[in-house]
Design brief:
With 272 residues, the chain is an alpha/beta fold. It is built from eleven helices and eleven strands. It has two domains: 211 residues, 2-enoyl-CoA Hydratase, Chain A, domain 1 (Alpha-Beta Complex); 47 residues, Lyase 2-enoyl-coa Hydratase, Chain  A, domain 2 (Orthogonal Bundle). The strands form two sheets. It has a seven-stranded mixed sheet with strand order 1-2-3-4-6-8-11, sandwiched between helices. A four-stranded mixed sheet has the order 5-7-9-10. Helix 1 packs parallel to helix 3, helix 2 packs parallel to helix 3 and helix 5 crosses helix 6.
C-alpha cells in the first residue's frame, strides 16, 4: 500500500486500486493529485505485477472536477509590469493538466475500470469516460457542469462524449449541464453498468478479477486497436489489426491459450 493524504494506492493479486481520498472536498482534484495520478498510470504500464487498474473514490462523491480553490496557473517569473495571466496561460494549463490526466488513462497499457460511487461532475465525469469500463452505483450522477460555471468543457470531454452518445445527445448534455443519473447513463452508453450502491464493490471486483486473470498483453493490444478505430479509415484499421495479431503471437499467453485449446483445458495466463 502506497498512500498519500489525498490518494490511496494499492496493488493486490494483479489489481492496482487507486482511490481519490478528499471526501471533505467532494473529491475535487488538486494539481498535486492530478500529477501523481499521471505518474501512476504511466508506471503501471511496465509493472508486470499490475494487470488491471481500478479507479475509485472514498466518501459520497467520485470526483466533482478540478478544485477551483487551488491555483491552476503555475507561477512563473514575469517582467515588471506584466499581468498575472496572459494569453496562452489557461490553454497551456489545460493541455498540461486535465488533458494529460485523461490521456494517461486512455493510453494506459492496462485496462482501467471506473468505480463510480457518487457524483462525477466536470473533469470527474471525464475521468470516468476515459476509463475502459465504468460501473456506477445507482445513486451516482454524471454532470457536464461546465456550462453552469460559464466555461467550456475540458479534459477531453468534447472529444469523448459524442463518440459515446452521439453528437446531438452530447450537445444536449453539454449545453444544459443537467444531472444524468446512473441508470440513464447506462441507457445512453456513458457507462457499462448501473448497480445498487451496496453491490458496487462486488461488481467492480468481479470484473477486476476476470481481467487480472486475462492475457494482459492481448487485452492491451485490443484496447489500442479499439481506441484507434474511432479515428482510423478502414485500410489503417485493418493494418493495425494485422500488426496487433503479429505482436500478440510473440507472447507467452498466446502460446498458452493455443495449447490450452488443443489440450482441452483452462488456460493459465501470466500476463506476458
Amino acid at each position: 500500500m502506497t498512500d498519500t493524504e489525498d490518494l490511496l494506492y494499492d496493488i493486490t493479486d494483479g489489481v492496482a486500486t487507486l482511490m481519490l481520498n478528499r471526501p471533505d472536498a467532494a473529491n475535487a482534484l488538486t494539481p498535486d493529485q492530478r500529477n501523481r495520478m499521471i505518474e501512476i498510470f504511466d508506471e503501471v504500464g511496465n509493472d508486470l505485477n499490475v494487470r488491471v487498474v481500478v479507479l475509485g473514490a472514498t466518501g459520497k462523491h467520485f470526483c466533482t472536477g478540478a478544485d477551483l480553490r487551488v491555483s491552476k496557473i503555475p507561477e512563473t517569473s514575469r517582467p515588471d509590469g506584466a499581468p498575472e495571466r496572459t494569453l496562452g496561460d489557461v490553454g497551456r494549463n489545460i493541455r498540461q493538466g486535465a488533458q494529460r490526466l485523461v490521456t494517461a488513462i486512455m493510453d494506459c497499457e492496462k485496462p482501467v475500470i471506473a468505480s463510480v460511487n457518487g457524483t462525477a461532475a466536470g473533469l470527474g465525469a471525464h475521468l470516468a469516460l476515459a476509463c475502459d469500463l465504468a460501473v456506477a452505483a445507482d445513486t451516482a450522477r454524471f454532470i457536464e457542469i461546465f456550462v453552469r460555471r460559464g466555461i467550456t468543457p475540458d479534459g477531453g470531454g468534447a472529444y469523448m462524449l459524442p463518440r459515446l452518445v452521439g453528437l446531438a445527445k452530447a450537445k444536449e448534455l453539454m449545453f444544459f449541464g443537467d444531472n444524468v443519473m446512473a441508470a440513464d447513463a447506462e441507457r445512453l452508453g456513458l457507462i457499462n453498468k448501473a448497480v445498487p450502491a451496496a453491490d458496487l464493490d462486488a461488481e467492480v471486483d468481479e470484473w477486476a478479477q476476470r481481467l487480472a486473470g486475462a492475457p494482459t498483453k492481448a487485452v492491451s493490444l485490443t484496447k489500442w486497436l479499439l481506441n484507434r478505430s474511432l479515428d482510423s479509415d478502414r485500410v489503417t484499421a485493418f493494418a493495425d489489426e494485422a500488426w496487433a495479431q503479429e505482436l500478440a503471437s510473440t507472447t507467452h499467453d498466446f502460446h498458452e491459450g493455443v495449447n490450452a485449446f488443443i489440450e482441452r483445458r483452462d488456460a493459465e495466463f501470466k500476463g506476458w
